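Database export, one record per block. Field names are fixed; values are copied verbatim from the stored entry.
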Amino acid sequence: MTLKITTWNVNSVRFRIELVAKFIKAVRPDILCLQETKCPDDKFPLKRFKRLGYEHVAMNGQKGYHGVAVLSRLPFDETSKRGFCSINDSRHVSVTIGERAGLKDPIIVHNLYVPAGGDMPDPELNPKFKHKLSFLDEMRECKDVHVNGHARAILLGDLNVAPREHDVWSHKQLLDVVSHTPIETEKLNAAQKGGGWVDAMRELVPEPTKLYTWWSYRSPDWKAADKGRRLDHMWVSPQLMDRVSDIRVAKEARGWAQPSDHVPVTATIEA
């Protein structure tokens, strides 16, 4: 079975439902993982997604901020969600795709939205940045979001850190900018290593090739300037890496009318 799995920080699922529908009709992912849905669960546009073919939904939302969801054409064997840093702010949901979907060996998918961290990279002066660092530390230690011996596992989402030199348009100029500071990159790399994950995007598109998934709203001509960052990630268990045949970044979505500042990233997996 070939599976297409997409991650996308949609920056309000209700406001951008037409863009989501446009993407779905073009790419037809089997599993769509959204972040920053900004929508409580009872207001989520379930009927529209069902009409688009997504009968199975796992949500963890709240009013106005954050929120994650997994939408699937395939049934789930189980779902779960957890809080981080003793805060219930809707940043994680996971699903298991297995026997009910016709898979002999199940695949666990973790959908995460790491805090952005504000504008000031000083945890003493900026509580948002302190929260982000604590969240990354908990990712490193939390067995719930580790590979944990599972041969087939995926962790994806808006992790809000561009960890490598060629994940940003200018390594030197962004070293003191939130998302690419040394302390953030060190902590994200530690979370990846501690969880037993492989960075699938960089396995398939190795450096020094530039790789971006986010372009700021503050840039008046984002396409010409191309000052992007890779904030959205797709990690897989080592045993699953050789099953990942393709990863595509839908850069064109950043040019759609009233877009998210993030674009969809889609992996093709021979399950």
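Remark 1: Residues 185 and 271 are 31 Å apart (CA to CA).
Remark 2: Residues 2-270 form a domain with the Deoxyribonuclease I; Chain A fold (CATH 3.60.10.10).
End of record.
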